[in-house]
Specification:
mainly alpha; AhpD-like; 9 helices
Length: 151
């Protein structure tokens, strides 16, 4: 029988303390990603919404707000397909974020990749793929260990 976690479940493991070298390595990998910070926070927020990671949604919403992102756009990330607040480049990044995050659904369809490729040079596209990969790793760690947003 499978059970689902509740939002009130206690954290399971302080993974940074239990495996500090690996934790530092993932932090360093994330720090090495060179992508426009505003775009990166949209990507981080979108992947975290898809994965249902309350801890990361909380963090990346705060970071995006501090960076000047509007509440309107932050709320619309959940329904970016229908929201008129994102330009074509942001839409391509969000579509790629959806495809990579939900990779078992369609294995990153050709049209999604081609659209992203038309808006990002190869080096920046590589950075975008790494940004999506890093946030998905953090989401999986936070969800698995039941990291909770600060009260």
């Amino acid at each position: 029988m499978t059970t689902t976690a509740t939002s009130f479940e206690e954290p399971r493991l302080e993974i940074a303390r239990a495996a500090p070298r690996l934790h530092r390595a993932l932090v360093a990998l994330g720090n090495d990603v060179e992508l426009d910070p505003a775009l990166r926070e949209l990507v981080n927020l979108r992947a975290s919404i898809l994965n249902g990671c309350a801890y990361c949604i909380d963090i990346h919403t705060k970071v995006a707000r501090r960076a000047g992102e509007s509440e309107r756009r932050l709320h619309a990330v959940a329904a970016w397909h229908e929201a008129p607040f994102f330009d074509e480049r942001e839409r391509a990044a969000l579509a790629l974020t959806d495809a990579v995050t939900l990779i078992s659904d369609d294995h990153v369809p050709h049209d999604v990749w081609e659209e992203a490729s038309s808006h990002f040079e190869p080096e920046e596209l590589a950075q975008l793929v790494w940004a999506i990969t890093v946030i998905n790793a953090w989401n999986r760690i936070a969800i698995t260990t039941r990291m909770r947003p600060a009260a």
